[in-house]
Design brief:
Strand content: 15-25%
Number of strands: 14
Oligomer: single chain
EC number: 3.6.1.13, 3.6.1.16, 3.6.1.53
Structural class: alpha/beta
Enzyme class: hydrolase
Catalytic activity: CDP-choline + H2O = phosphocholine + CMP + 2 H(+); CDP-glycerol + H2O = sn-glycerol 3-phosphate + CMP + 2 H(+); ADP-D-ribose + H2O = D-ribose 5-phosphate + AMP + 2 H(+)
Pfam families: Metallophos (PF00149)
Protein name: Manganese-dependent ADP-ribose/CDP-alcohol diphosphatase
Bound molecules: zinc ion
Largest sheet: 6 strands, mixed
Shape: globular
Radius of gyration: 20 Å
Strand order of the largest sheet: 5-4-1-12-13-14
Amino acid sequence: MTAADRASSGPPPDFRRRGHFLRKSQGAALSARLAGGEVAQPVAREPAAAEPARESCLEVMDDKPGTLSENSELLFSFGVIADIQYADLEDGYNFQGNRRRYYRHSLLHLRGAIEHWNTEGRLPRCVLQLGDIIDGYNAQYKASEKSLELVMNTFQMLKVPVHHTWGNHEFYNFSRNYLTNSKLNTKFLEDQIVHHPETVPSEDYYAYHFVPFPHFRFILLDAYDLSVLGVDQSSPKYQQCLKILREHNPNSELNSPQGLSEPQFVQFNGGFSQEQLNWLNEVLTFSDTNQEKVVIVSHLPIYPEASDSVCLAWNYRDALAVIWSHKCVVCFFAGHTHDGGYSEDPFGVHHINLEGVIETAPDSQAFGTVYVYPDKMMLKGRGRVPDRIMNYKKENASQF
Ligand SMILES: [Zn+2]
């Protein structure tokens, strides 16, 4: 199997173990350890108290979320979609051979999602595209630019702004330099906070924050800030990242997690630099101070209970430690896993891994719209994306 094959087919079957790292009961202990050691001066908060099951709320979800609760006023909404992985290819299968990939139909799925968002009674403020917009196979067929153009032309039909996240498949097709100068760079949509230069991201990574609605800040993270993908092999950063990868993965095939105690250390994943985490910490500090609610977006998931352990960001614990040292984060959206996942962590942050478009049959769908209320966010999933209720932490829910 070539590297390109593996790149396009995802991790091998034996390594896809779901959330075996960290049970919820272990979360608080882990968070205390992480908050104390691995990130500069985080202050761990008390975990959110156990809350009663909310599943019954799902029964009342319908197409008019504004009518869900007499006390809830819909503030705004936003769309989410992940892993479109378009290629002009016949259908194929993932590496395990058990999940079909609809390379061409993924574009039709995207069109369907856009038509839905465009015809919503109240337009979403924006759409979050969670990465892997075209498949790595395009590089093999020298079709990367053509496929990207096709998908981006489709996105042009969307009446609202789209924020693009970068995933591993972006780097199978393009260099980081190319992406920085491409339409996949939506940093021009960022908001800047006057008199707070510490909240301005560096140009060394692709991350920014924006405010689609007053008091709600969205942060787009670069999960391949530390990565051997898309970087010039002669650069110091490549050597630094290769060293990190090799220290944790002795396999000759760096895409293989075989035998690893930390199976996320594979080539198709990446991590967050300390510089980016420090920046994230500054933005979250500002949001805490200003009583904002925060949504974070990254191609790679960071919470083991919501993801296959082999799909996590290399240093997911560092990202969790930063997030857990603040009270403002409501939810963390990621792609990459294709089969989806959800868990609320001990600090009341909701982790959602969105089901991937690429493995969605033509007669189904894979996207969602998140409706934002004063006390919660509600994901209305379409097709194989389930509905989710994301209540705010209790200490903050009454601020609006
Ligand atoms: Zn991916």
